[in-house]
Amino acid sequence: MSTPYAKLPAWADYGLIPLINLSVAFIVAGFVVMLVGENPFRAAVILVEGAFGKGTGIAFTLFYATTFIFTGLSVAVAAHCGLFNIGTEGQAYIAGLGIAIVCLSFDSTLPWWLTFPLAIVASALVGALWALIPAYLQARRGSHIVITTIMFNFIAASIMVYLLVGPLKPAGSQAPQTRNFLAGAELPKLNWIIELFGAKIRSAPLNVCFLLALVMAFLVWLLIWRTRLGYEMRTYGHSPKAARYAGISETRIIITAMMISGALAGMMALNPVMGDQHNVAIDFVSGAGFVGIAVALMGRLHPVGIVLAAILFGMLYQGGAELAFEMPAISRDMIVIIQGLVILFAGALEHMFRPYIQALFASFSPKSVGMQAVTGKGA
Amino acid sequence: MAQAAIELIGINKNFGAVRANRDINLEIARGTIHGIVGENGAGKSTLMSILYGFYQADSGEIRVGGQPASIKTPNDAIALGIGMVHQHFMLVDNFSVLENIILGAETDALLKSSIAKARSELDRLEREYGLEVDPDAIIEELPVGLQQRVEILKALYRGAEILILDEPTGVLTPAEADHLFRILRQLKEQGKTVVLITHKLREIMAITDTVSVMRQGTMVATRETRKTTVEELAELMVGRRVLLRVEKGEAEAGAVKLVVKNLTVRDSRGVTMVDDVSFDLRAGEIVGIAGVAGNGQSELLEAISGIRHAVSGSVMLEGKPIDLTGKADPGELRDRGLAHVPEDRHHVGLVLAFEENENSILGYHDDPRYLKGPFLNIDAIMADARDKIEKYDIRPGNPRLKTANFSGGNQQKIVLAREIEQDPGVLIVGQPTRGVDVGAIEFIHKRLIAMRDQGKAVLVVSVELDEIRSLSDRILVMFAGRIVGERGPDATEGELGLLMAGVEHQEAAQ
């Protein structure tokens, strides 16, 4: 009775159900498109073609996905430890400061492959430190991490605005941003990989950060499921009481998990700053931290799921931009609505169709839902 | 035979793939007390929830007083004269008795007339059934036994002719339970029908007229109580013969392992839960702490195991003190040979979302045996988990299965296997068999006695008096945070019951 829902086979759990949720989200989004007087099928075609139709589209999709992988991983690491890090946005934003310092200092003297590791360390360090304060307050003072991280987003934004209109702005410039980086702080593009498959790319910002993101996804998997630290984080995340019983220090585990989360959030800044714009500008994170929450939830906090969900959101961003361009009735806000529907059905209403699918599985193949475990011997 | 109050015909209920009730037929005669027994998960509560309208049966028919009834919500059940007293009371703590009784049965927008009506009605019910309660008392200030009485009054106020009680004695002292039984007999004499769900067979024997046994979702037997025995019922419940009382030899108590001196513990609200408690625990003996739940046993266990901060006093483990500031490292205590099976295995002793093998190292995950540098040594952990599964007959024997999918008894075996296999000098166990199937109880008791016979010191805290009496070499009774008496294993239930109710203690204080 305590578990009214039986188990489903893994492929249904991780494949079928997300697919159904996603389809429903798109069907509802289709109705919204109809409401504004456009043809939903044509809109869908434009969206998908915009994202995957041409080499440039794919490169943009993966560029956005890179950003979301970092923020998604950041949210997931904290979530495995039972912490809701809403501060990914601010941690990424303030990490731009670390990158700016490294890049502005070394871009004229060092080659990119020396600047890049320094910038990785700087971004991770600044992101981690920005997460440290809320983590400390949670661990020692019991201040709720959701509240403090939200507040730290505002503080980060204010500091960055101050720096970018003041100290970091080149004298005489009208734009609230640093000077453009020189070649020593420009990351190489990865467009040639897509071109290997015969696609032509005009200009797209996909860069080596994508590879870094994939490496981090693997490292996060290793951390969570294969190390003692990850085991302790998951124990605390599932049951703080069990962690206390097991001798896991609450302070240490909260601070460690949040700093790793903050470091991953900080590394997100590398992608737009060093890979694309080659400067630190106001609001360069532009909501990617919050998208990371959706990505992490949709990816079920698993790095593989997060990479896939990040690509989906990358597609929505890129395809959405094309859609807004092709269909004047559909503005950027419409894209936000579609994204919202995806989050609603894939995240918040994740279990809406589950009981029906389970009933279906139970009637066709009782074994697949673990019927034996139930009727088997007691103790 | 009198006309049936309730007939259940061919009831089926599935939760997803779980077949909680399979083709249940049951007839309960009017004016009788009918017991339903079965292990946890046998489907008793599901069946009663169907009768009370919490769930809908997938198929089958319910007849109340001979008429087919459609019960879709608890309100339908109430309208048909069915009342339910839940295991966990459904009362608003900071409302008065009267306010709780009219809750959901108010007649006007203004409460004045409802309350006046309820007051006179309550007066009548109290006189008729001997259910005295002060109508203006605040619920949270009442002892548990009286709170339960309010639940019964609530049902009667709504015109219940059929009263379902789900595990009603779990939170009561033996004296309170006796009083409850007197009330139930009185209700029966007035022509009410009582359905009693329990896993305590002695209660069934003491009070019911007929008894039905459920096992794995099916109704396996219905018996007239005076024509059956505890042994037969236990066998029907489990499906095989069970030993209700484990055999054990004389204890050979050795050196003192654990000394608790003047220990005082407060809870988070600052209420003193453990009050100046002193005792010691020797190698080769089992000391049982008896008491009604909530008399400080939980806090005592937590303080000894270094999880909870103690205000004053000391605890010595093998001659060395345990840090009682609440900052003790339970990991360090484990290294010093103190193993702890916590009362709450769902939230403390286990992480239910973990795989079985992950739980088999909880608390010992710092042990180099399970590690390769910063990484977990998955091979070693799995081998270790398989080993324990075999030794403790944990079923299903799959270390990759999620812990939540094991039955209560098997979950408890996972915890016990983990703690006992570390070969601790001192083992403290909270509620060793709470929510555990009868079959596993026997196994767990044998293991604990085997620990004792190996010369380990074992401290057992349990609210099950039978368990304490059957396991312990010495029995300490806790009441209101104090140890109010120490008795030998041959102490009678009545004697312990009085101590648990604090009778002697209060007399001494006056």
TrEMBL record, chain A:
The chain crosses the membrane at residues 12-37, 57-78, 113-133, 145-165, 204-224, 253-274, 280-297, 304-324, 330-349. Signal peptide: none annotated. Keywords: Cell membrane, Membrane, Transmembrane, Transmembrane helix. It is found in: Cell membrane. Pfam families: BPD_transp_2. It is a multi-pass membrane protein. This is ABC transporter permease.
